[in-house]
Amino acid sequence: MYRYDEFDRQFVTERVEEFRDQVARRLSGELTEDEFKPLRLMNGLYLQLHAYMLRIAIPYGTLTPRQLRRLADIGRRYDRGYGHFTTRQNLQFHWINLKDVPDVLSALAEVEMHAIQTSGNCIRNVSADHFAGAAADEVADPRVYAEILRQWSSLHPEFTYLPRKFKIAVSAAPDDRAAIQIHDIGLEVKRNDAGEIGFGVYVGGGLGRSPFIAKKLRDFLPEAELLSYCEAILRVYNLFGRRDNKYKARVKILLHEAGTEEISRQVEAEYDAIRAQGRLTLPQAEIDRIRAYFAPPKLDDLAPQSTRLDEAASSDQGLRHFVERNLVPHKVPGYGIVTISLKAIGAVPGDVTSDQMEAIADIAERYSANELRVSHEQNLVLPHVKLDDLPEVFALLQKVGLATPNAGLISDIIACPGLDYCSLANARSIPLAQRIAERFGDHERQTLIGDLKVKISGCINACGHHHVGHIGILGVDRKGEEFYQITLGGSGDQHASLGEIVGKGFSSAEVVDAIETIVETYLTRRENADETFLACFRRIGETPFQEALYADAK
User: Fold this and answer.
1) Which site from 170, 320, 469, 538 is most exposed, i.e. has the minimal number of CB atoms within 10 Å?
2) Who contacts 45 (Cβ-Cβ below 8 Å, separation ≥6)?
3) H/E segment holding residue 33
4) What DSSP assignment string belongs to 455-503?
């Protein structure tokens, strides 16, 4: 994976010392909170309901065990012994003391991490497929292009003060695991008929109070033109994006108001002007240099099937369930990609303790070629595990409460921190996620239901991606009481769609029963056991679910 060069190290170190001085001036009273706010946000520091929150970038979701151990140490020394993984492949500490932040940032810099551009109206952390570099179905490793974009966008002087925050995601497989169509720019790495690498380019996706699925501006952009075209998009947005109203400032609104055809015309004109200068065309040597950082680890030649794993799973029901749900094929025979669910029944989605982080780091170091991934679904991934080693990996995960076999099932819930932490939230997300998981916690019942993505947001900002949940739940405030609005039929994959609001909201006391009703309606209406919830909804529509949910009202 990418290693800091001399410039990276010097820059991040100088940035830490600059912020150390700014923190000292805030603590002394020399800076007011209003004066300090833009400075702290540039370093990923938020002021939430109860304490400061520090958001740490994990570029394209790739971590080393050394870095995870450092995060564990920070959690233990400076927080309350845990961290929270987000839907942006970041990690957040929610109980940071302001006086400690410079020391935390310094500790991060020692392991090539930082919190720069995890906030503010800039290009945020570039995310990617969490199975990158290992997936059997990928065209190429998308992290190569995510790293090129990271280097280009880090403190880009032209795009440091955009109309609003800007998010980019990269996927390189037919199955979109990076949700590229709900990003400001989504890039699909692909090959044309000649076998050349390029990109499908999507623009204008995003959730929040005005959700939109992105529009495709280019079906195939040549590999060398990646930065030229992205810069053209950013320039058009920077010039014409609204700055009079932050709720209408995202590029999705510009695309909606001006029209896809007009924005495409302007982007192509700007792209032609940039190409004429020739300064942003990627040299093949530079692409190869970055690609070398992501060379796959040296893996053994193994049989595609593991007799050892098969025998162990036949006598261990827990391992068998884990293999069925949390293991997917690797591009190299004899290996698998393992999802570590951070969604134990009753747990807080995305939370992991410092002790658990250290255990995961040990497992990754010994059994996963020294590599880890963070998914936008708030789970962790061991990308290179021998099938023969899976029984040991499962046993070690069991010891620290991380062997829940529910990847993709109804209890694998995405949830934002909600009103327990966030000053913007209207309702609690975490307790609701816990209650739903407990209601459906029985593994046999979850398996009967099958693939079903539940996503919960505590406010309209949609950090829990509720708009693209198969079942989406939005917390709202109604005269001081928490209510929950339900949407159905959303999806963040290659067939992206926004969920449809089924009707009036439900109180906190009613909402889990409402989810039960939705699930039971699906089970009675599906054609067969192979028809997923999403497929069933798209076939029969929302009416049967509305009738079941509001039968008493009628």
Assistant:
1) 538
2) 52, 53, 54, 55, 96, 98, 101, 115, 119
3) helix 33-41
4) EEESSTT-TT-GGGSSEEEEEEEETTEEEEEEEES-B-STT-BPPEE-S
What is the Cβ-side half-sphere exposure of residue 459, based on CA atoms within 13 angstroms? 11
Q: Could you give the 3-state DSSP secondary structure of residue 195?
A: coil
Which tens digits make up the pLDDT trace of 482-515?
999 999 999 999 999 999 999 999 999 999 999 9
Amino acid at 149: L
Q: Strands, E, within 97-223: which ranges?
A: 127-128, 168-171, 185-191, 197-203, 215-222
Q: Say how many C-beta atoms besides its own lie within 10 A of residue 448's C-beta.
A: 11
Beta bridge partners of 485: 474
Type of residue at 62: T
Q: How far apart are CA 480 and CA 294, in angstroms?
A: 51
Which residue, 215, 217, 156, 222, is CA-closest to 189?
A: 222
Model confidence pTM above 0.90 = yes
Taking residues 68-93, report their average pLDDT.
Answer: 98
Query: Rounded distance, CA 367 to CA 45, Å?
Result: 34
Distances (CA, A) of 330 to 131, 279, 383, 387, 409: 9, 38, 8, 10, 21
Give buried/exposed letters for 135-170 (b at 16+ CB in 10 A, else e).
beebbbbbbbbbbbbbbbbbeeeebeebbbbbbbbb
Q: Determine phi and psi for 494, rounding to 5 degrees.
A: -65, -15
